[in-house]
């Protein structure tokens, strides 16, 4: 995720509630800070209005009932098939839905023995990705009210089974070779529906996002990249530079 705050605000027609800083990263890891886009109903002279905002959240959702934020490292993804029932996600999917912008993501292919080859999955054009996500607020009981960090904003990305390859695209055959799960992308129309805070049929929204994955991912490309991406201490544009695959 290497887009600037101003570019994200323009792309999503969003505003800031507070000033945020989002350093570019080519190797986002669980618990790192990532941008999210959400919509809220705010009271404006007693007349509620819908506002779209850009926030920074910790990747790995921390449920409001968690005793500490450590659980978030295991909540970076939410399975769309069970998101309506899982205690960690069922409240968020009804009222705290968000969009998670990214430029692409990495996946690893298992080779002979212990060999693995990383791949970079990204759109074919100049546009970025936007994944269906959830967000949650967690209150740190060890910090006094009003102190920075008293409230932690976190997020998770919805996933689904990788669609089987079809005649309309070959990308899904390549994705299936890498992993049996795929993060759920959204086009603009789907995102508008997903973010709407007044929409109350969460099941229908999840179905909408799942049904649009083939169209939203039709122009994705898969390129082999260097194994340096496997170390979170490595971070720079060279990580997405294509290299010859090992196998």
Automatic annotation (TrEMBL):
Keywords: Covalent protein-DNA linkage, DNA damage, DNA-binding, Hydrolase, Lyase, Protease. This is Abasic site processing protein. It is an enzyme of class 3 (hydrolase). Belongs to the SOS response-associated peptidase family. It comes from Arthrobacter liuii. InterPro entries: SRAP, SRAP-like. The keyword DNA-binding applies. Its EC number is 3.4.-.-. Pfam families: SRAP. Gene3D superfamilies: SOS response associated peptidase-like.
């Amino acid at each position: 995720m290497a887009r600037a705050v101003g570019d994200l605000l323009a792309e999503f027609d969003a505003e800031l509630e507070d000033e945020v800083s989002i350093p570019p990263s080519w190797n986002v890891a669980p618990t790192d800070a990532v941008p999210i886009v959400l919509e809220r109903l705010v009271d404006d002279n007693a007349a509620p209005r819908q506002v779209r905002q850009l926030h920074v959240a910790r990747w790995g959702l921390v449920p409001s009932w968690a005793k500490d934020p450590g659980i978030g490292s295991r909540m970076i993804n939410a399975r769309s098939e069970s998101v309506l029932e899982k205690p960690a996600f069922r409240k968020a999917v009804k009222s705290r839905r968000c969009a998670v912008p990214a430029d692409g993501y990495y996946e690893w292919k298992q080779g002979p023995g212990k060999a693995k080859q990383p791949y970079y999955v990204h759109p074919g054009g100049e546009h970025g990705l936007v994944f269906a996500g959830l967000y949650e607020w967690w209150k740190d009981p060890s910090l006094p009210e009003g102190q920075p960090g008293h409230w932690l904003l976190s997020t998770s990305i919805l996933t689904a089974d990788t669609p089987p390859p079809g005649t309309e695209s070959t990308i899904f055959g390549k994705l299936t070779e890498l992993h049996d799960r795929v993060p759920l992308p959204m086009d603009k129309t789907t995102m508008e529906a997903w973010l709407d805070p007044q929409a109350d049929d969460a099941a229908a929204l999840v179905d909408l996002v799942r049904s649009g994955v083939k169209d939203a991912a039709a122009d994705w490309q898969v390129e082999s990249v260097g194994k340096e991406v496997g170390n979170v201490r490595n971070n720079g544009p060279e990580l997405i530079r294509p290299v010859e695959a090992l196998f």
